[in-house]
Amino acid sequence: MSPTPHSALRAPHLPHFLRSRRACLRSLVGGSLLLPAILSELSAADEPASDAGNNAADPLSPKQPHFPAKAKRVIFIFSSGGVSHMDTFDHKPKLIAAADGKTVGAGGGLSNLQKPLVKPRWEFRPGGKCGTRVSDLFPHLREKMDDIALVRSMKSDDNEHYQATLAMHTGSFFFTRPSLGAWLSYGLGTANQNLPSFIVISPHTPYAGGQVWGNDFLPAYHQGTRVVPGAEPIPNLQRRTREEGLQELELNLAEALNKKHLAANGNDSDLAARIRSFETAFHMQAAAPEAFDIAQERDETLDLYGMKRGDTQSFGWQCLVARRLAERGVRFIELIDRGASDNWDAHSDMKQHEPLAKAIDKPIAGLLSDLKRRGMLDETLVVWTTEFGRTPGQDGPTGRGHHGACFSSWLAGGGTKGGVTYGETDDIGATVASDQCHVHDFHATILHLMGIDHTRLTYRHAGRDFRLTDVHGKVVEKILV
């Protein structure tokens, strides 16, 4: 068959024939008997599914949770490098009083080193009506504590950035496993077929690299789509032609041929994901530019996030775009604060925390305020965490070392109680004193709020059933509404 001339594609009546994939292909083959199998498949695909609630043809179609969910979506904020708990959210008056050169077993975790204690540098003050004390590093977040469930008893099993970052995202400390966002995409699908179910906004590559948003053995269409802040967050998104209907025509033909190729290759999941990505990319050409276009936002809203008009690089931009993606039905949105360098890893001087905190404090507080005033916070789970905390004892001259034995994280909205704290550390913040919350418990709780029983969300691979929490994890009921 000779190619259809461009003049035919520009005919005025073309849009009439592009109302369905079936009509599109028929216009291409000119009503001949060519490609009958393709036409048959496309015709069947155009017919309504017999069970609209269980569309097996689309792996990203919305799925029912195990039980009624409190949250519909997650905004997961990750501060890379290890944020010091006793300098931010875990007030330790006795550490302040004792930090006079005394040496105790302050290494904690796996090292248990004997190091001189380091006095917290910033003052702690009560925030909100609940009175939860937060340091001067986070003055704006401090005023949002009435909306936040603060977990002060987090526990990781590793003191190294790579392993701890991997675990916080995948539940696995040493082996590649699917990320939290990929598990939720697999378990719940997406409410917006024009955007990916899982989007990661990351200006820098974090520890463990793309594994933190990877799919591993889950089908590849569940992996996160990375967006890099800037003037063009998703490169090459513009249509390559303005000819009405031309791109649709080409993609529909490619899809039909791809599906035949897929069937001939045993429905390989990577190939299926590649084919599915073409369709998503096509729909994103219309949906994504609008979602990332913050020019329509009011100056008052930009100020809420600590932004100036024209800003496309700041953490405020990340937070505002996260709200816009949440509005448009994206299931899991991750914001990565810093990467594997120039981050919160303050070995030599804790003063390093100051500019980093200032960059995220107002934007995150603004995100919580904006979600709340739009009536979205009740159904949006906002999570902030880091991979581990820092030692009460000295590492560099005025810095702190890695500390997986205890650290702080928090959750807001999406079925959590505001204005509460959970768990305690000892007097100097070296170990968990009560109500430990392991990384597996943290994940189990997030899944629970999304209507997922973490023991039932499984995927069979290499002869066994895998899950995000492995064989561990318990839901932290005390912070739930």
Structural features, described:
The structure is a single chain. The protein has helices at 6-9, 14-17, 21-29, 36-46, 93-98, 139-142, 161-170, 180-188, 246-264, 269-292, 299-304, 315-327, 353-373, 439-449, and strands at residues 73-79, 103-104, 115-116, 124-127, 132-135, 148-155, 198-201, 225-227, 332-337, 380-386, 389-394, 400-403, 407-412, 420-422, 424-425, 432-434, 437-438, 459-461, 464-466. The chain has 481 residues and is of the alpha/beta class. It has one domain (73-238, 299-479): Alkaline Phosphatase, subunit A (3-Layer(aba) Sandwich). Strand 11 (389-394) and strand 12 (400-403) form a beta hairpin. The model is unreliable at 1-19, 25-56 and 106-112 (pLDDT under 50).
Radius of gyration: 25 Å
- Overall number of domains: 1
Structural class: alpha/beta
CATH architecture: 3-Layer(aba) Sandwich
> Quick one: how many beta strands?
19
Please report the number of helical segments.
14
Beta-strand level of the residues, as a percent range?
15-25%
CATH top level class name: Alpha Beta
CATH topology: Alkaline Phosphatase, subunit A
Q: Which whole number gives the mean pLDDT?
A: 85
Largest sheet: 9 strands, mixed
As residue ranges, the low-confidence spans are 1-19, 25-56, 106-112
The percent range for helix content is 25-40%
CATH superfamily: Alkaline Phosphatase, subunit A
Choose one word for the global shape. Answer: globular
Query: How far do the termini sit from each other?
Result: 64 Å
